[in-house]
Design goal:
The structure is a single chain. The longest helix is centred in the middle third of the chain and has 15 residues. The chain folds into 2 domains: 287 residues, Adenylosuccinate Synthetase, subunit A, domain 3 (Adenylosuccinate Synthetase, Chain A, domain 3, Alpha-Beta Complex), CATH 3.90.170.10; 95 residues, Adenylosuccinate Synthetase, subunit A, domain 2. The chain has a 10-stranded mixed β-sheet with strand order 9-7-5-2-10-1-11-15-19-20, with helices on both faces. Strands 14, 16, 17 and 18 form a 4-stranded mixed β-sheet that branches. The protein has a two-stranded antiparallel sheet with strand order 3-4. It has 416 residues and is α/β, with parallel strands linked by helices. A hairpin with a 2-residue loop joins strand 3 and strand 4. The chain is 30% helix and 21% strand. The site of magnesium ion has 6 residues, from loops.
Length: 416
């Protein structure tokens, strides 16, 4: 029985998971997503062409791999159908769990309305309806993709749901769907998606028992995890490696090698604490050199220094066997590079995550920079100062560095 390997984001998302999944997918038979929805934006560059994936796993660019969207993902049928149009011949290589919950138009409307009501305390969500869809799932009133097999029953259930929750929707100025239009909309989803629905749990079990190589692709990042992230400034799913068990129906024993994806610096999009954020020109320089603008919403990402405290925590909670350090080239030309080695909280220096990260002041150690790492493909070709920086990350996070990425291109990757 094979074990499935796993790729997980270690910071606040956008670490470069898409690039690594695409690169590794060349050696895997299947790639599976287990949580999140089209809030994710995974960018992949192949031979100068850019692909932005939100729901379809990043294995789709390997024509021989099958791609699975697991039960733990919240699927907007409209967004999935739109994304599928980029690719031909998906039948037989894309499978979507029939028990995954749907994001419908009103989930998106409620996400955006609640954000407006939160005012200054807004989470800064992607506005894609992720929180409301997961809330309804947990409240046991969600709508699953398999229900598209009976449009009459599904539309009756949606209308009944609106009757029960009418007061809330009225207060948020969200109108109940009109019965005929709703059926037409759902029928469109059914026509496009029913051929792709499957019992993906059974499928993953069979792949593993036939010794196939399965890669699990996390979305978002550890610090956005609903339980272990910077609550309430998080997303609504279990983004950590354990989420793969729930989101696909596999056991912890089915998981093999776990690789944590982490930038050589740090970014965050949306609101919430970010101890190492640099509000000055260094932060601006990271944003420009790293092209740090959201794949999904185009928002400028907040930028700052590598946080070894958060990374050590994330590595432990995910059980990382190795880290993949991304975007090392973005630090090219910096004279001084900083790593956060501790947090000062109420006068004491700590090396673990406090409940209220807002209060944490970073304690930095400085490192000399280097001229160029862009495009380097061998560890030995890295400048000595870059090696020192990386080895210090390895020491502080107590996790081996398995890969280093030096450009968006598939091939500009060091395997160590
Ligand atoms: P994901 O959400 O974790 O898949 O990451 P995103 O795709 O949202 O953001 C990562 C961005 O960095 C993408 O635009 C990638 O093309 C780019 N990228 C990935 N690796 C590298 C790298 O090593 N160097 C540079 N300069 N860019 C990279
Ligand atoms: P990938 O997979 C970075 C952030 C949002 C917001 C918070 C909650 O590309 O790494 P949500 O819409 O999920 O309710 O928003 O989470 N967020 C991400 N930030 N990368 C992502 O995905 C993200 N998905 C959600 O900005 O702060
Ligand atoms: Mg992204």
């Amino acid at each position: 029985m094979k074990k499935a390997d796993l790729i997980v984001g270690i910071q606040w998302g956008d670490e470069g998971k898409g690039k690594i999944v695409d690169l590794l997918a060349q050696n895997y038979d299947a790639v599976a997503r287990y949580q999140g929805g089209h809030n994710a934006g995974h960018t992949i560059w192949v031979d100068g062409t850019k692909y932005a994936l939100h729901l379809i796993p990043s294995g789709v660019l390997n024509p021989d791999a099958i791609n699975i969207i697991g039960n733990g993902v919240v699927v907007s049928p409209a967004a999935l159908i739109k994304e599928m149009k980029q690719f031909d011949r998906l039948e037989g290589r894309l499978f979507v769990s029939e028990s995954a919950h749907m994001i419908l138009g009103f989930h998106e409307a409620i996400d955006q309305a609640k954000e407006r009501l939160r005012g200054k305390k807004a989470i800064g969500t992607t506005g894609r309806g992720i929180g409301p869809a997961y809330s309804e799932k947990i409240a046991r009133s969600g709508f699953r993709l398999g229900e598209l097999r009976d449009i009459d029953a599904l539309s009756a259930r949606i209308l009944e749901y609106f009757e029960q929750n009418g007061a809330i929707y009225k207060a948020l100025e969200i109108e109940a769907p009109e019965a005929t239009a709703l059926k037409v909309e759902l029928q469109g989803y059914a026509n496009a998606l029913l051929p792709f629905l499957a019992n993906t749990t059974k499928m993953v079990w069979e792949l593993l028992s036939h010794d196939k190589n399965v890669l699990l692709e996390g979305a978002q990042g550890t610090m956005l995890d609903i339980d272990h992230g910077t609550y309430p400034y998080v997303t609504s799913s279990s983004t950590i490696s354990a989420g793969a068990c729930i989101g696909l129906g596999i056991s912890p024993k089915d998981i093999g090698k776990v690789t944590g994806i982490v930038k050589a610096y740090c970014t965050r999009v949306g609101n919430g604490p970010f101890p190492t954020e640099d509000f000055g020109h260094q932060g601006d320089r990271l944003r420009e050199q790293g092209q740090e603008f959201g794949t999904t919403t185009g928002r400028p990402r907040r930028c700052g220094w590598f946080d070894a405290v958060a990374t050590k925590f994330a590595s432990r909670i995910n059980g990382c066997d190795a880290l993949s350090i991304m975007k090392l080239d973005v630090l090219d030309g910096f004279e001084e590079i900083k790593i956060c080695v501790g947090y000062k909280v109420d006068g004491a220096v700590i090396d673990y995550m406090p409940l209220d990260l807002e209060k944490a002041e970073p304690v930095y150690r400085s490192f000399p920079g280097w001229e160029k790492t862009e495009g380097v493909r061998q560890w030995d070709d890295l400048p000595e100062t870059a090696k020192t920086y990386l080895l210090e990350i390895e020491r502080l996070t107590q996790t081996k560095i398995g890969m280093v990425s030096t450009s968006p291109d598939r091939n500009d990757t060091i395997f160590r």
